[in-house]
Amino acid sequence: MATELTWLGHGSWLIATGEHHIVVDPFLTDSPTAAMKADDVPADFILVSHGHFDHVTDVERIAKRTGAMLISCFEVCQWFSRRGLEKNHPMNIGGSFAFPFGRVKMTMAQHSSTMPDGSNGGLAGGFLLSLAEGNVYFACDTGLFYDMKLIGAAGIALAALPIGDNFTMGPDDALEAVKLIEPRRVVPVHRGTWPVIEQDARAWAERVRHETQAEPVVIEPGGKIVL
Ligand code: NI
Ligand code: MN
């Protein structure tokens, strides 16, 4: 079976490889645009980019129900350990590890990371996943940074980039990011959840189509991409 990625809204994803289910930054229960309920999400692994509430809200709930392993930076794993999530794999920026579904590299992000109770969430990151069908780059919450060019050098089949602005890159900087990363396909996320990050994704996709070699994929929450 081909790997299928479902955008659950905001920065949340469900990846089904045929053998494993991997959830990224689950924000479902309190998200106005969530495409799935936390109690319905299958999970073997949960990737968390940073400690902000709109990325961690449903981690505990999903992990405790499914027994999924949490993969995140050291501080985020420590915080969840104290809440009873023993099954976790701490990493940090620049490090990679081969999990049963593929290698995960934690990439840098220009963003902050504080846990919902105000404790230190370490450094915010992104994820580069090496899956059977190709590399997928989740920039997660970040501003534009020139080292995206180095991440792109790995050869990116699909990049998920924030375009919402205000908390992350907006459409202009996300377009620059596409030029640096040069992915085969790019999907705009972290948008439309609230009025402050409302963006015209289709207008952005037109700019991507005209100014870069990448193929933009605009989906709504619940939409799927086959890798
Ligand atoms: Ni954030
Ligand atoms: Mn966020």
Structural class call reads alpha/beta
Number of helices: 6
Q: How many runs of DSSP E, i.e. beta strands? A: 14
Q: Name the CATH homologous superfamily.
A: Ribonuclease Z/Hydroxyacylglutathione hydrolase-like
Oligomer type: single chain
Q: Could you say how many structural domains there are in total? A: 1
| Range of helix content | 10-25%
- Strand content range: 25-35%
- For the termini, the CA-CA separation is 10 Å
Low-confidence stretches: none
Tell me the overall shape: globular
Bound molecules: nickel (II) ion, manganese (II) ion
Q: Please give the largest β-sheet.
A: 7 strands, mixed
Strand order of the largest sheet: 6-5-4-3-2-1-14
Output the radius of gyration.
Answer: 16 Å
**Helix/strand order:** EEEEHHEHEEEEEHEHEHEE
Written description of the protein model:
- The protein is of the alpha/beta class.
- The protein has one domain (4-217): 4-Layer Sandwich (Metallo-beta-lactamase, Chain A), CATH 3.60.15.
- It has 6 helices and 14 strands.
- It has helices spanning 53-56, 59-66, 74-81, 148-152, 171-181, 201-211; strands spanning 4-9, 12-16, 21-24, 45-47, 69-73, 88-91, 96-99, 102-108, 125-131, 134-138, 158-162, 185-189, 215-216, 224-226.
- α5 links the parallel β11 and β12.
- α5 (171-181) runs parallel beside α6 (201-211).
- The longest helix is centred in the C-terminal third of the chain and has 11 residues, at 171-181.
- The protein is globular.
- The N and C termini lie close together (10 Å).
- The model has no long low-confidence stretch (mean pLDDT 97).
- Bound molecules: nickel (II) ion (NI) and manganese (II) ion.
